[in-house]
Design brief:
Elements: H1 2-6, H2 11-30, H3 39-46, E1 53-55, H4 60-66, E2 78-80, H5 93-102, E3 110-113, H6 116-125, E4 128-131, E5 147-148, H7 155-161
Parallel strand pairs: 1-2, 3-4, 4-5
């Protein structure tokens, strides 16, 4: 946005481009979202044992499109999207907002992430983080993670044994 304005684009033109980008992204999302294998099983095993929430940098509109057919939202106690906070990952604000929402301390929280940005936000918030790399983040540097697991199914045991090292 700022770069476009510096290059002489009007705020209206930038807003129009942003709307077009969001429309195209929404169309792409509607064409299919696949969950990581094992997500529903993992969530089912953790349900009623720990409080769970989603903290995403996605816009609410995009989040709703992504999860329109996933059937996993009932597992979660809350969802925070980009509109629920000002700073975006790697800023710690999204996770600090979730922590306040749940009235929990850092020591009581555990974040599950799949990206370096998410890990950076968790570390900046002072909250332990388990990394489950995806196909795009498999070779990223996850130094500073509490744990890095090979697949989502390994999360259940780690969560239920938290805070043991």
């Amino acid at each position: 946005f700022i770069l476009a304005l510096q290059q002489g684009m009007s705020p209206e033109a930038v807003a129009q481009l942003q709307e077009e980008r969001n429309r195209r992204y929404s169309d792409l999302l509607r064409n299919g979202t696949l969950l990581m294998e094992g997500v529903a099983d993992t969530l089912s095993r953790l349900q009623n044992k720990v409080r769970m929430g989603i903290v995403t940098s996605s816009r609410r509109e995009h989040f709703d499109i992504i999860h329109a057919n996933t059937d996993i939202l009932p597992y979660f106690d809350f969802v925070l999207t980009q509109e629920d906070y000002k700073g975006s990952k790697p800023d710690p604000e999204p996770f600090l907002t979730a922590m306040k929402h749940c009235r929990l301390t850092r020591e009581e929280c555990l974040i599950i992430e799949d990206s370096e940005r998410g890990l950076a936000a968790a570390n900046a918030a002072g909250i332990h983080c388990i990394i489950v790399p995806n196909k795009l983040t498999l070779n990223c540097d996850f130094t500073g993670a509490w744990r890095v697991v090979d697949n989502i199914r390994e999360v259940t045991e780690a969560v239920l044994n938290f805070p043991a090292s």
